Structures are given as structure tokens and as C-alpha cells.
Amino acid sequence: MIRVLLVDDQPLLRSGFRALLDLEDDIEVVAEAGDGKEGLALVREHLPDVALIDIQMPVIDGIEATRRIAADPALAGVHVVILTNYGFDEYVFNALRAGAAGFLVKDIVPEDFLHAVRVAARGDALLAPSITRKLINRYVTQPLRTGAETGLKELTNREREAVVLVAQGLSNDQIADRMVISPMTAKTHINRAMAKLHARDRAQLVVHAYESGLVAPRGAGADPVRITRPAR
Asked: What would the pLDDT profile of 81-113 be if each residue is shown by its tens digit?
């Protein structure tokens, strides 16, 4: 059962998201909050698998709430997905740097919303394609972050290869196929790379891959991280 916490200051939106989630047999909404302070208290109380958090809220906003969750070792199993009305902006980028597992625009279709919750729950990076394109644009136009490449020296060649494939949006199974290894070994390479680079999750691993220059953007329209639907 995937345990979900909803944090949004708009009751109507919370009700709509909850109605969708409550219809699913494998998802349980454990609590709701109308601001970031209340949301943080409920995260600590319920330890959800996924916290869906609005980026702009009263008292404590989504960025600060995400930062506090990511900084608390007791909340390491909580995957934060930021909800936004605005698409990519500076707030969204800062929330990703703060530790968000991904982002969703609030006009997402129900099928993709439910899929996104399941993707986040299993620890995969989750970025809406419209946000991803703008995120990559940032790396096309800006210089590499000073010092970001330092941690790469700790990676083995296979770990570096796995990080590149994560940044291209591949799942563990796809990475295993590409590297001709088992999915478990692929997951091990990724987890070790995350530990060495101090990345909380795959989303932060993607950011580090671009900031360090390990992966170069393929162009403004590139979309290396996407919601990948499971085979039916």
C-alpha cells in the first residue's frame, strides 16, 4: 500500500486529488494539510511514502518544507513531489535542489497523476516533460557549477555509466539491459553513486549529472527524464 500525504492550501484541489487516489486499491491518503507547517508535522507523524506538496503556501512554503524533510534522516523514506501551477521557474529549480523527487503541474491528466504517485513511491525521479525541457534549457545556457565535478572522482567507471543512463531517463531494467548486467546490479551501482554524490534520490542524481558536466544537454528540446509507462 502506497501511503500519500496531501499538502495544498486550496481545499478544492486537495479534494480532487484525494478523490482520485481513494479510488485506487494500492494507494491510501493518510492525511491532508493546508500549509507547510502543518504538512511537516503530519509528515513526521505518518511517515508517508509520497508527500504531494504545493510549491507556494502560507506559513512555510513547499521549498522550505522539502528542505526540512530532506535534511531529516528520520524522513529518508519520504519522497516529495512538488505540485505547481506555473511550470518551471526559479522556485521549482530551488525545490529540486532542496531535495524534491520531482514535479507535477496541477493540470496533469488523472491517469498520469496516478502513475506519477507510483513512480515516486518506488524512488524514481519524476519530472513533468514540460518542466524537464525548461530545466535542461537552464543547463544549455548556464556554465557548470564550480566544484560540482569533485564528487565524480569517487565514482567507478560503471557507476558513472549508470548515472549517465539515469540522467537519460532510463529505468533500472533499461539500464541493466544497456550495461548488460542484472537489474539488481544496476540498482547497486545507482545507490552507490547516490551515496558518493550525497544525492537523496534519482532526481538529485540527475541534477548533479548536469551540473558536473558528466552529461551534456542535447539541446533545448531534449527531454532526458520523462514519465515512463510500464509495459502492459
From this structure: 988 886 656 777 777 778 888 888 888 889 989
Contact call for residues 70 and 204 (beta carbons, < 8 A): no
Distance of CA 171 to the CA centre of its chain: 14
What is the CA angle 52-56-59, rounded to 5?
100
How far apart, in whole angstroms, are the C-alpha atoms of residue 75 and residue 88? 26
* pLDDT range class, residue 226, cuts 50, 70, 90: very low
Non-local (6+) Cβ contacts of 146 within 8 A are none
DSSP three-state, residue 84: strand
What integer pLDDT is reported at residue 85 of this predicted model?
81
What would the pLDDT profile of 190-199 be if each residue is shown by its tens digit?
999 988 988 8
C-beta of residue 232 within 8 angstroms of C-beta of residue 223 = no
222 has pLDDT over 70: no
Q: Which pLDDT value is given to residue 142?
A: 55
What whole-number distance in Å separates Cα of residue 172 and Cα of residue 183? 6
Kindly write down the DSSP assignment for every residue of 6-57, as one continuous string.
Answer: EE-S-HHHHHHHHHHHHT-TTEEEEEEESSHHHHHHHHHHH--SEEEEESS-
User: How many C-beta atoms lie closer than 10 Å to residue 15's C-beta?
Assistant: 13
The DSSP element (H or E) to which 149 belongs, if any, is none
Complete edge-to-edge strand list for the sheet that includes strand 2-7: 27-33, 2-7, 50-54, 79-84, 102-105, 126-127
**Distance from C-alpha of 44 to C-alpha of 88, rounded to nearest angstrom:** 28
